[in-house]
Design a protein that fits this description.
The structure is a single chain. The protein contains five helices and three strands; from the N terminus they run βααββααα. By secondary structure, the chain is mostly helical. The protein has a domain of 68 residues. One iron/sulfur cluster binds next to helix 5. The site of one iron/sulfur cluster has 11 residues, from loops.
Length: 112
Amino acid sequence: MQDDTAQFVCQRCGACCRIKNGIVRVSGAEIARIAAFLGKDEAAFIAEDTELAPDRRGLVLKSHPDGACAWLTDDNLCRINPVKPDKCRTFPHEWTNSDSASVCPGLRRTRS
Ligand code: SF4
Ligand code: SF4
């Protein structure tokens, strides 16, 4: 089977961080490392920067009403890049879903 990510080159478009109704769950370990990176108390990070997941099972990073992650800059950079959640870190090499190719132009290029 062909590896769709073998030729993948990120276009730095930020589309994967702007998925309407997309969520980025954060584990306790991820919360701890992001809070430490920000120099923020974990409880404050949880209160100010996360919200309950739609299924009410855990926490997700907050996003803007248009779906953009709260940590995405206007020039498509991640403000917590060194400590971003594993889901973000592994996309699209290890973590993808059935919608990924329609979201990510880097993946679409490898499939053309
Ligand atoms: S944490 Fe960073 S990489 Fe992950 S969705 Fe938000 S802006 Fe994108
Ligand atoms: S959608 Fe794909 S090409 Fe665009 S920033 Fe995300 S990983 Fe890179």
